[in-house]
Amino acid sequence: MYSSVLIAGQFVNLGIKENNPVTQMKLQKMVFFAHGLHLALNNGDPLIREKFLAWRFGPVVPTIYQLYKKWGNSPIIEKTSITVNFQPLTNFSELSPSALEAINNTWEITKDVDAITLSNWSHATNSPWEITYKKVGENGVIDDNLIRNYFEQQIKSPVPAV
């Protein structure tokens, strides 16, 4: 299990490396999808420590929001410098194979999808965000079991993208 900032930084750095930078909104959805995929494929083992909250525009990790809010709706074009145990994390090799799989699969699926479409995907009928937002309201914690069950179902029979 990793810090959400570490996983977010991987997506930011991939975006810069491939000349396809992500926005704050897109970044939040990418981390959410990677987390869901990891939960579904690894017996409920979370990718990140922090919990997602049901914000108006979808699932959000406040720590990621605070770190990248200065970018607003603009692409994030500054590499994220990340340290683990006071040592710089310089490459993906320090992440587990399952974390890398979740990050890389999510990147390949979502890198060319705009933030609004990703937000719409996260707002799908019976999605963990929708269930939490309707039941608890804005800022409700989205339960990892809801996320896991939803992504397990999506892997078995994906809902066509609208």
Summed up:
With about 160 residues, this protein is mainly alpha-helical. Helices cover about 50% and strands about 10% of the residues. The chain has helices at about 5-15, 25-40, 60-70, 95-110, 115-120, 130-135, 145-155, and strands at about 50-55, 60, 85, 85-90, 140.
Percent of residues in helical segments?
Answer: 40-55%
Number of strands: 5
Secondary structure class reads mainly alpha
Distance between the termini: 32 Å
Number of helical elements:
7
CA-based gyration radius: 15 Å
The strand order across the widest sheet is 2-1-5
- Overall, the morphology is globular
InterPro entries: SocA_Panacea
Keywords:
162 residues; mainly alpha; 3-stranded antiparallel β-sheet; two-stranded antiparallel ribbon; 7 helices; 5 strands
Describe what this molecule looks like in 3D.
This protein has 162 residues and is mainly alpha-helical. The protein has one domain (4-156). It is built from seven helices and five strands. The mean pLDDT is 92.
Write the SSE topology:
Elements: H1 4-17, H2 24-41, E1 52-55, E2 58-60, H3 62-68, E3 83-84, E4 87-88, H4 97-110, H5 115-122, H6 128-135, E5 140-142, H7 144-156
Antiparallel strand pairs: 1-2, 1-5, 3-4
Helix pairs in contact: 1-2, 2-4, 2-5, 2-7
